[in-house]
Design goal:
Distance between the termini: 84 Å
CATH topology of the largest domain: Helix Hairpins
Shape: elongated
Number of helices: 4
CATH class of the largest domain: Mainly Alpha
Largest sheet: 6 strands, antiparallel, barrel
Structural class: alpha+beta
Number of domains: 4
Radius of gyration: 54 Å
Number of strands: 18
CATH architecture of the largest domain: Orthogonal Bundle
Order of helices and strands: HHEEEEEEHHEEEEEEEEEEEE
CATH superfamily of the largest domain: Helix Hairpins
Strand order of the largest sheet: 3-9-12-11-10-13
Length: 427
Amino acid sequence: MPGRGTGVAVHLGMDRAIDPVFASAQKRGRLTIAAAVAALVVFAFTYGPSLLKPSVPRSRVRIEKVDRGPVEASIAAYGTVTPDLEEVIASPVDARVTRILKRAGDTVKTGQAILELDLAESALAFERMGREVALKRNEQQRSRLDLRRVLADLDSTTEAKRLEVESLRARLAQQTELAASGLVSRDGLREAQLNETRAALELNRLIASRGITEEMNQAQLEGMNLELATLEGQRREARRVLDLGSTRATRDSVVTWTVTEAGALVRRGEPLARVSDLKSFRIEATVSAVHGRALRPGLEALVRIGSVDLRGEVATVEPTVRDGVMRLWIRLDQPTNAALRPSLKADVQIVTDRRADALRVARGPFLMGEASQDVFVVRDGSAFRTRVDLGLIGYDVVEIARGLEAGDEMIVSDMTNYLHARELKLK
């Protein structure tokens, strides 16, 4: 029976009552855990959204206020400052450069030579034309003298024939009177009449011959005058070629480029040098050909060179397209501004439309080239994503057609990485 007694003792030990102190401690532990879980749930619902909200430092974004004012729509172009007056000096003949007198950057006065060319052949041509002109003038003078001699001979012959006609007419009158008295036969009278008629015809022939001779000689002289004028024109051209070959500046200017090697062979029409008047400038600009239809002379242009803004207008638009771009030239309102220097780069905006009073904001990297896009508007220390419609895009400002009001503050920085968020916290 000892085994049974032992079993009974064990059974009685397992059914023993739990200590009240231990039970109370366990209950307090469970309540504490439950309270902590509840508090965590409340905290998560209360502060979780703000902890999960993305944020951006205020110092890293640019915030601009929306206001009202004028907006000018424009097309962006890239410009270069060029002299308003630039002259290209070309070689008048095939020649060799013998000496370079001026280099790029040197100033030249009117009439001052820039290069020297070997113009021996041109000089010989000029001398030859001079001799031909002299020979033609001599021939013309001899023709005038021949004409005077011929006309003098004709005048002398004509005058002698006129005297003969007058004598024959007097004799005919005398014969007529004698025939009336029966003192002269009819045959004698007829002979006198024939002699007078023959002499009169010869006189008329001489007078007509003189007129024809004078006209023929006049025509010959006019032909010689034309030949002489042609030769003199050729001589002037030869003189001009010699003058051009001296490559002299036609005005006070600055050399911007020259042939760099003495001894170089240049062909007729090839450039030898470029000179520019650096007192006045214009802008040569390039723009994408997609804007070709909107470009025309007379459009207003805004030019920015560093921190200097200048205004002007499109003077010329080149109709040809090269590599997808078009060239145009802008005439400045202040072509002598001190900020203008050759070859300076310039940002150009060509104004195509404008509104005098529009809702606008400063232009910035937020632009994505779409008519409608999401931007971030700042309110109460946060930035809220907002859909806006854009209008005219100007040089410095952008029109807000719909979505904002005057006085709103908007982030104009590039916010592409935050467009997934509806709200941003500004720290």
